[in-house]
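REQUEST FORM: STRUCTURE PREDICTION
Request ID: SP-0412
Submitted by: Lab K.M.
Chain count: 1
Length (residues): 57
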Amino acid sequence: AADCVTTNPKTIRTDEFAISALNVMEEKKITSLVAVDAEGHVEGIIHLHDLWGTEMV
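STATUS: Completed
RESULT:
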């Protein structure tokens, strides 16, 4: 799997709005972001499909 991983994934802070995540995904032409806290610690992953299933966007 080492040859398939993204070594510098795009991130978004967990205190950002969902629309910000959508904007980054559209701009970068990607479908997921790593969610990090204020210190940069990984909290999870947000996928485009996660956003589609909400009323936030």
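NOTES: The mean pLDDT is 92.
Reviewed by: T.R.
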